[in-house]
Amino acid sequence: MAPVPDRRPLPAQPATPSDLRFDRRTGQWVVIAALRQERTYKPPPDQCPLCPGPTGMTSEIPAPDYDVAVFENRFASLSAANNGRCEVVCFTSEHTGSFAGLQSRKARLVVDVWRERTRDLMSRPGIEQVFVFENRGEEIGVTLTHPHGQIYGYPYLPPTTESMLAAADAHRKANGSNLFADLLADEVADGSRVILATGSVTALVPFAARWPVEVHIYPNRKVRNLLELDDAELDDLTAVYQQILQRFDRMYAAPLPYMAALHQYTDSEAQREGYFHIQVISIRRSATKLKYLAGSESVMGAFINDVVPEALADTLRGL
């Protein structure tokens, strides 16, 4: 398909879209992306940039309809100049709805798209990690309500990934086994935090959950990314992921705001101990209360959870 010129009246892009800065205090990278101040903010439905737009005047997708659409984020946090990449994945052409409400065939199509974009981005020089994620709900900070997610190609390993790989490497040296596989085996043996399981996938609340609602979904065998799952496993993964999101939406009268993250690892020696899993979290701690990251969490990185993980697992099992 030939490229289509963008005819929307949008602000000009800066010459340097984003800047990577290294914080010597923490040893962590920070992305400075001032152009994101200009991103589309809560447009009315008739001006949604993710709905099909045959005229090309209001939409990122100049087509009368689509199943799943992928495009490079106009207001990207990570730029090609720094070997980064940011993409948007639209789950459906319908303005309302959610991943949980997709027909199973369409949900699997989205997962296949995630897989193919992972394949492409992992093959690009300079990209250290491919991060697929979704933010849902205004409480989370979502400014476009059309069902969609994003993909980041990081030119460095983010702090969470570095920490998990370091813990996994230490566990391997001490025990001769994979940390995540051992954690999964322990959770299955205990059973108190397991929500549901199939022949190839297990969904559970982690023992040391940081968030009032937090679920991890693991393949039952160690793989590093979506590319290493076979078709049957992808079917199970999609179905279990949808079921968890559906249970989230039955917790309260209103749909649950959430963040979903796919932890993926490359086929490299440095990331050999990585174990693919999906993490889904929510800041809602009751029907009327949200969990805000205040001083302890935001400044010190010391999380305090108001909800007992075993109680959450029991609630989700019953929904």
Strand arrangement within the widest β-sheet reads: 3-4-6-5-10-11-9-8-7
CATH overall fold name of the largest domain: HIT family, subunit A
CATH class designation of the largest domain: Alpha Beta
Count of strand segments: 11
CATH architecture identity of the largest domain: 2-Layer Sandwich
Spatial gap, N to C terminus = 45 Å
Elements, N to C (H/E): EEEEHEEHHEEEHEEHH
Range of helix content? 25-40%
Could you name the ranges where pLDDT drops below 50 across 5 or more consecutive residues? none
Q: Report strand %.
A: 15-25%
CATH superfamily of the largest domain: HIT-like
Instruction: Count the domains.
Output: 2
Rg calc: 20 Å
Domain Galactose-1-phosphate uridyl transferase N-terminal: 81-158
EC number: 2.7.7.12
GO cellular component, one term: cytoplasm
Cofactor: Zn(2+)
Structure summary:
25% of the residues lie in helices and 19% in strands.
Which terms would index this structure?
alpha+beta, HIT family, subunit A, 2 domains, 6 helices
List the helices and strands and how they pair.
Layout: E1 19-23, E2 28-32, E3 69-72, E4 85-90, H1 104-122, E5 129-136, E6 148-154, H2 159-175, H3 179-190, E7 194-197, E8 201-204, E9 213-219, H4 231-249, E10 258-263, E11 277-282, H5 295-298, H6 309-317
Antiparallel strand pairs: 1-2, 3-4, 4-6, 5-6, 5-10, 7-8, 8-9, 9-11, 10-11
Active site: 148 (tele-ump-histidine intermediate)
Domain Galactose-1-phosphate uridyl transferase N-terminal: 81-158
Keywords: Carbohydrate metabolism, Galactose metabolism, Metal-binding, Nucleotidyltransferase, Transferase, Zinc
